[in-house]
Write a sequence for this structure.
């Protein structure tokens, strides 16, 4: 458990904001190279995954199978490209490996394979599985008296799967306080706004009714994310699973990619890539400035 | 059945042959697993509201903290078991075959097989063993489904004795497995549980050179009875192979049967599409072994409702049906 009392330093926030911007930039460049990627959902979860890996999870890029590590499962496996960029940036594997993304014989397909990619804990992509897998791991850890945390990151569209609600029900029944579910609530799925496809609201209430502790936060606000993560109950003693319902924007950071299904999955030519990079730089202009100041001696 | 016959010191051998004879397949599974779990703390047991039906009470009483009842959620049952395996546990999962193979089909494929877990699925009430329960509870598709999953081992024990052997073989077996059990009213094909059992290696229960019956599950006992009748009354020497493992399949035993005997009939309590018969046919075709061949099983239709023994008789997979089929094939070959 991190120190609750310590205030979160502005410098840390700036660095994590910059990292989120920097990885979005990398993703745009990689998309150009590999022909297509799930940009929308990778951008909506970016700040959360960056915060998890840089400031919360006990994991070791040098020793990915280390005993007593925290477990993270990307249940929304279609955002695997964004996730793999974060893992590469942390040093789980060389970044140039990602150039093979989607290629025949590559370790990297659209949806991550845990047997092929260091740092990936479970193979996901079929929606509605990640929370149940995390629950199984959490139950095993409880049985062994271990105190690590198990985290599953779900998409909101995925909440339409009945198996998610089965797992929510079972996690409460088994009092898995070491289980954290994060829901990327960007309110869009592949075909359009969820309000039109399949309404989830009132989602917080539904989760609470299923017996979960729920924090609803702004999923792009590093300060909020860090505070929420640091104030989570101790996984060793908690008897109630926790959900973070994070309000996000699909395609966040590049205005012409925001809140549209067009960039759920997409490719781009050099011209669109240039346009996207310029738009991204503009969005994060002040973050870039603050970061540069930190780096200037 | 009293617990007093239990000998807690003997691993996996905690009852007499007489007692074993009285127990159903699922009860045997429960008892052997409970015994073997003593020295294997990694073994956990999961079910979906079927402790009583799957006869696992003994395990639940012995290891309450290693038992997880997921309620009636077969999909999450399989997914949670997969997660526990990823975290180092050795999960044994029980539910009815129809739900294990179809309701939770994708979870078995994607979470248990693709993730590379060692989850063991002990599917009860398979085939027509709960025939009177109606079509929703008939399970005639599971072998076909399960054998297409890469890395999945598929086993169909003939009776309670063989089930005991299967559980002993599985407690230290590395990958995932689907074990197809009945409801527990099967006649025994073996006399006791003291015979050689190896996953992937067929057992010859009756020697013969005229013809071969390749059977699994309840077909083995029926095949045995048919082979004995054919020997005494018709002087036809029939080889009977208990093909308990559908995958990996004992190709050598099939090739030998085709080369050394006059023809092959397969017997299974499963659709004739995709099960044991199909698996054997694949080997015969690939090996260019054009022998007289027939698949006995349930034809491409929804099976009748009824008591299992009546249905086995109706679909020709009981001793009578097997005997008639073999006799006809042997005569027409002459």
């Amino acid at each position: 458990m991190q120190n609750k009392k310590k205030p979160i330093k502005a410098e840390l926030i700036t660095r994590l904001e910059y990292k989120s911007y920097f990885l979005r930039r990398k993703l745009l460049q990689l998309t150009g190279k590999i022909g297509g990627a799930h940009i929308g959902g990778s951008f909506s979860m970016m700040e959360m995954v960056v915060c998890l890996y840089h400031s919360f999870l006990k994991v070791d890029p040098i020793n990915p199978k280390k005993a007593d590590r925290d477990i993270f499962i990307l249940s929304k496996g279609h955002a695997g490209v964004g996730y793999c960029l974060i893992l590469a940036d942390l040093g789980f594997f060389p970044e140039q490996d990602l150039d093979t993304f989607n290629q025949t014989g590559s370790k990297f397909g659209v949806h991550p394979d845990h047997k092929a990619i260091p740092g990936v804990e479970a193979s996901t992509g079929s929606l509605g599985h990640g929370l149940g897998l995390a629950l199984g791991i959490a139950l095993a850890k409880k049985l062994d008296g271990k105190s690590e945390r198990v985290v599953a990151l779900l998409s909101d569209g995925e909440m339409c799967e009945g198996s998610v609600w089965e797992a929510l029900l079972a996690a409460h029944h088994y009092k898995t306080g070491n289980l954290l579910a994060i829901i990327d609530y960007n309110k869009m799925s592949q075909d359009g706004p969820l309000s039109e496809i399949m309404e989830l609201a009132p989602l917080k209430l539904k989760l609470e009714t299923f017996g979960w502790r729920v924090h609803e936060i702004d999923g792009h606000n590093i300060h909020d994310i860090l505070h929420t993560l640091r104030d989570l109950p101790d996984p060793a003693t908690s008897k109630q699973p926790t959900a973070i319902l994070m309000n996000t924007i699909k395609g966040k950071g590049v205005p012409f990619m925001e809140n549209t299904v067009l960039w759920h999955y997409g490719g781009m030519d050099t011209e669109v890539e240039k346009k996207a990079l310029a738009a991204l730089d503009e969005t994060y202009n002040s973050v870039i400035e603050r970061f540069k100041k930190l780096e200037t001696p | 059945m009293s617990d007093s016959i239990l000998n807690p010191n003997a691993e996996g051998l905690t009852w007499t042959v007489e007692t074993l004879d009285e127990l159903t397949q699922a009860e045997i599974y429960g008892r052997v697993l409970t015994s073997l779990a003593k020295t294997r703390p990694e073994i956990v047991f999961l079910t979906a509201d079927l402790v009583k039906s799957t006869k696992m009470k003994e395990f639940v009483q012995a290891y309450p903290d290693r038992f997880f009842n997921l309620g009636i959620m077969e999909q999450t049952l399989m997914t949670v078991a997969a997660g526990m395996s990823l975290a180092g546990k050795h999960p044994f999962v029980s539910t009815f075959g129809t739900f294990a193979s179809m309701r939770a089909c994708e979870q078995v494929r994607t979470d248990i097989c693709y993730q590379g877990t060692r989850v063991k699925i002990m599917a009860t009430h398979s085939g027509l063993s709960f025939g009177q329960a109606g079509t929703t509870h008939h399970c005639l598709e599971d072998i076909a489904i399960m054998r297409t999953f890469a890395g999945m081992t598929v086993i169909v024990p003939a009776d309670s004795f063989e089930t005991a052997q299967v559980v002993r073989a599985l407690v230290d077996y590395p990958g995932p497995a689907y074990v197809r059990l009945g409801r527990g009213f099967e006649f025994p094909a073996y006399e006791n549980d003291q015979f050689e059992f190896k996953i992937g290696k067929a057992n010859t229960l009756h020697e013969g050179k005229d013809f071969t019956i390749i059977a699994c599950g309840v077909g083995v006992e029926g095949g045995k009875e048919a082979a004995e009748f054919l020997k005494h009354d018709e002087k036809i020497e029939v080889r009977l192979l208990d093909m308990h493992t559908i995958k990996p399949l004992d190709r050598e035993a099939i090739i030998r049967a085709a080369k050394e005997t006059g023809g092959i009939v397969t017997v299974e309590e499963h659709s004739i599409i995709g099960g044991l018969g199909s698996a054997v046919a694949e080997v015969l075709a690939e090996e260019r072994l054009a022998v007289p061949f027939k698949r006995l099983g349930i034809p491409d239709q929804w099976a009748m409702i009824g008591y299992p023994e009546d249905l086995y008789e109706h679909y020709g997979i009981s001793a009578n049906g097997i005997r008639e089929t073999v006799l006809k094939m042997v005569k027409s070959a002459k």
